[in-house]
Amino acid sequence: MRFSPTPRGARLARRLVADRLGAWGHPYTSTANETLTLITAELAANAVRHGHVPGRDFEVRLIATSETLRVEVSDTRTERVPLLPSQEPSGDAESGRGLMLVAALADRWGVAPRVTAPGKTVWAETGCPLTGRSPALGMPR
């Protein structure tokens, strides 16, 4: 799904991921839903803050397999590739902990260049399999 590169767009992405996970059998209060929703919130906020190119939306894709849940957040800024900080930000810093949180919550995460458009995709996976409901191939772009 596409979202405007605004704080409102990031909030909507988070809410739609939580809703889709609920429909796939992971209720709002489940660990899987809370974890992937928080990861989505961090990645969407980063897309808005660091990956924003005026006039271009960011995209979120949610994929479920029999073994994992994966969220992908794509933006259109190629030159700002996220790296895990080598040290924690100072105690009074108001930002800089998002990817540390993603790294702590996800089983795996990474960054890949977009193939069909400019920009990058930041993705994260958790080992939370489906709970008996069969989703669509993924959350539409």
Description:
The protein is globular and about 35 Å long. It is an alpha+beta fold. The chain contains three helices and five strands, in the order E-H-H-E-E-H-E-E. The protein has a single domain (2-126), classed as Histidine kinase-like ATPase, C-terminal domain (Heat Shock Protein 90). Strands 1-2-3-5-4 form a five-stranded antiparallel sheet. Keywords: ATP-binding, Kinase, Nucleotide-binding, Serine/threonine-protein kinase, Transferase. InterPro entries: Anti-sigma-factor_SerPK (IPR050267), HATPase_C_sf (IPR036890), HATPase_dom (IPR003594). Residues 3-123 form the Histidine kinase/HSP90-like ATPase domain.
CATH H-level homologous superfamily name: Histidine kinase-like ATPase, C-terminal domain
Helix content: 25-40%
Level-2 CATH architecture: 2-Layer Sandwich
**Rg result:** 15 Å
CATH topology: Heat Shock Protein 90
Total beta strands: 5
Please outline the major beta sheet: 5 strands, antiparallel
Number of domains in the coordinates? Answer: 1
Task: Please identify the structural class as seen in this structure.
Answer: alpha+beta
Q: Please mark out the parts with pLDDT under 50 across 5 or more consecutive residues, or reply none.
A: 136-141
For this structure, what is the CATH class? Alpha Beta
What order do the strands of the largest sheet run in, or round the barrel if closed?
1-2-3-5-4
Please tell me the overall pLDDT. Answer: 83
Number of helices: 3
Give the amount of beta strand, in percent.
Answer: 15-25%
Q: What is the overall silhouette?
A: globular
The rounded distance between the terminal residues' Cα atoms is: 4 Å
Order of helices and strands: EHHEEHEE
